[in-house]
Amino acid sequence: MIPEKDIRLEAGRKLFAGAVNFLKSSPALEFLPAPSVPEVAFAGRSNVGKSSLINALTNRNSLARASTTPGRTQELNFFDVGEPLEMRLVDMPGYGFAKAPKDIVKRWKWLINDYLRGRAVLRRTLILIDSRHGIKDVDRDLMKMLDDAAISYRVVLTKSDKVKAELLQKTVDAITTEMRQHPAAFPEILVTSSEKGTGMAELRAAVYDAII
Ligand SMILES: Nc1nc2c(ncn2[C@@H]2O[C@H](COP(=O)(O)OP(=O)(O)OP(=O)(O)O)[C@@H](O)[C@H]2O)c(=O)[nH]1
Ligand SMILES: [Mg+2]
């Protein structure tokens, strides 16, 4: 018999083996695509690696625009996955970007919060956390909002290539413990590096799990 884990990994691989296409950018809620297929959203602080992770996950170099400058992604970007269409990935603007103008920060915050709270087809939000920095209070604010609204989310550590194995394990343990206190959080976290490809097979399986 094929182990359950291998079946999940294969399903995740297949999901992203076919077509992946940019659909549209939505600067405001009235421009969202029709809520016709399941969605998985990528949220996190500015520069945490959301766009890079979408590129690594889909094996495309520049599907989502990444940049060394925080504040690169300014709208909700939708990507169609599968042919026929199976799901959408949503790349979001970052939060917690101290240097951005106040009115822009406010606009992004409302856009992110309104989308996450109101989107019926949203199956899971992935909250990306930089392996070097761990969870910050802005991340906790988002988690609290999602807990209160009973919207399912899961933590994904990014840039794991930037920290030594021992420290990484400590961070994983601390975050796993913290996540147990959050009612809407998926208990197991994922560790990734878009740079090295670490954790991509697991992340594809996690996206597959969220939409079935
Ligand atoms: N070493 C390393 N660098 C990474 C990794 N993922 C992303 N980066 C770098 O981090 C920077 C930010 O990446 P983005 O993907 O643009 O981050 P973002 O979260 O989409 O940023 P905003 O759209 O501005 O919120 C870029 O310089 C990336 O090359 C990783 O796994 N390892
Ligand atoms: Mg981005």
Automatic annotation (TrEMBL):
Source species, domain of life: Bacteria
Entry keyword set: Cell cycle, Cell division, GTP-binding, Magnesium, Metal-binding, Nucleotide-binding, Septation
Gene Ontology molecular function, alphabetical: GTP binding; metal ion binding
Coiled coil feature spans: none
Signal peptide: none
Record flagged with keyword Metal-binding: yes
Entry cofactors: Mg(2+)
Domain EngB-type G: 36-212
Any Gene Ontology biological process: division septum assembly
Role: Necessary for normal cell division and for the maintenance of normal septation.
HAMAP family reported for this sequence: GTPase_EngB
Family: Belongs to the TRAFAC class TrmE-Era-EngA-EngB-Septin-like GTPase superfamily. EngB GTPase family.
Protein's name in the database: Probable GTP-binding protein EngB
Gene for this chain: engB
